[in-house]
């Protein structure tokens, strides 16, 4: 905020005045340099006499009445060639004309001096807010101070809004603190500014001050403050705010209800969010989108889709944010056909293709196994953010397409329109890891260390390098890299190395890492399973029994393997040795039949994937019961010839199932997509995009 002492600092220098037109020069004379009316009038007269074209005259200024003044200001500020909504890209001449009106209005303010009225100040401040005109707005504020004008609460609040829109929160706060009288709008304007800029603690502190001042919050105050209640401590405060909402009977108000359910959803309390949603007497697109987004962000994808379908039947209007949330849920389910339908719905209803919606489409197509469509959406974008690049890079990486990852990254750095961030470099490192490009990945990591990309290396970047070395079989180097890290290694990093030891059958390092993990994460079933499987691969069955006994002692339960296949918009679920599917007998027979046929083409079951101390025949039977084989067999049975089969697995796909799918793809001329929890395997004519490297 401007103080009287600092007013002279705003005065332009002599050289600056020479570049102004006479209106601007007059404003300097009256507003900031002279305090004596006779002096500023003499200065004005001298300047005006030298101007051949005068829009306003001294006589005109002298004869203005207060009501005429406010009308003049309104007319001057409204004098534009077209509404702002029409002029999306105003020409230079339009901009100059509009700025001229503002300068003319400021000149009128300077002439009137103490006779300036409320309506004139309001019109000027509104225009300054609209144009984000900092210097001009400061002049209006300075004029109030110098003329000893005492603004009403409304005008004080407009000053707060002006400074917050410009981004000067400190000045806005000083205006609020100097107000002799504040109302709920004043408090809410400042709280909202803090909230929008991410200053949650300041917003909450100010809200508490407001309550102590005995000012009653309104629905907009509650909606704003609830948006700041994030994180563990914020959520506890949010529950207290919720009690105030109930006490003040605002719970059923649409703005407050939407903020409440959004707060609960972001805190992972989706059931509480759903209760708030169901209790709303009326719902709008914001509240509906908030609850759908809440389900999608928590990975409760089926519930998100079911709720979206229900709300569509009830006539809910959707916007681009709604569709983006639905696409997030569909990407989690890998429901490509549903995703295509949503894309078609967006096109038919001519929903604006904002960047966030296009990013969601890229993510959906990538996670549904259609990376080609994802690239088409990416290429069609007129504007790309760093999230757009990251989504496409991650998509290629998940499909094991390391070469495409590096090529796209080179294109990004060559264009120099968007700078890579931490996630970008993480995606490229991961792509190199999954694509077997360890040399390029290590080179990039060294570039990050040297600061060539403007990003400091973080724990995740080191984790990617360790994963890269582990996949390449360089287990000793990976182990040494962990020991030399500037960070304390996380369980995820140790787990990556343990998984690599299992793949490459390195019991020495794997045993050491496995026991380290059992100490760090005694409740994580995955660590027990991988260590047990490592012992099984080495034939150390006594150690296998010891690990499994330890799991029982600690009541650690392994997540059962499940696979899904979508046919005719119905998702079919299969478990290992499934006994629940209505067509299970047919499916088991189909798997046996497939096994016999592909054996004739060279398929040999990989018995090392059966981690039980039984004979080979029994091991082969166990392998035939894997959920991904059952889902694949059902997909072949229930779909037309030549139609691609897409299978989703909740755990890592085993080597034997991967080989099984490759032979089936070649024998039946089928395109097969296998998606596990880490990546995609796109198999065409018996060849997988992973290059048998994953």
Descriptive tags:
694 residues, mainly alpha, 6-stranded mixed β-sheet, 4% strand, elongated, disordered N terminus
Strand order of the largest sheet: 2-1-3-4-5-6
Q: Which regions contain 5 or more consecutive residues with pLDDT less than 50?
A: 1-99
Task: For the record, give the distance between the C-alpha atoms at the N and C termini, rounded to a whole number.
Answer: 60 Å
Strand content: under 5%
Total number of helical segments? 36
Tell me, rounded to a whole number, the average pLDDT. Answer: 82
The tally of beta strands, per DSSP, is 6
CA-based shape: elongated
Helix content percent band: 55-70%
The whole-angstrom Rg is: 34 Å
Backbone structural class: mainly alpha
Q: Main sheet?
A: 6 strands, mixed
Question: What oligomeric arrangement do these chains adopt?
Answer: single chain
Structure description:
There is one protein chain. By secondary structure, the chain is mainly alpha-helical. Helix content is 65%, strand content 4%. It has a six-stranded mixed β-sheet with strand order 2-1-3-4-5-6, with helices on one face. A hairpin with a 2-residue loop joins strand 5 and strand 6. The N terminus is likely disordered.
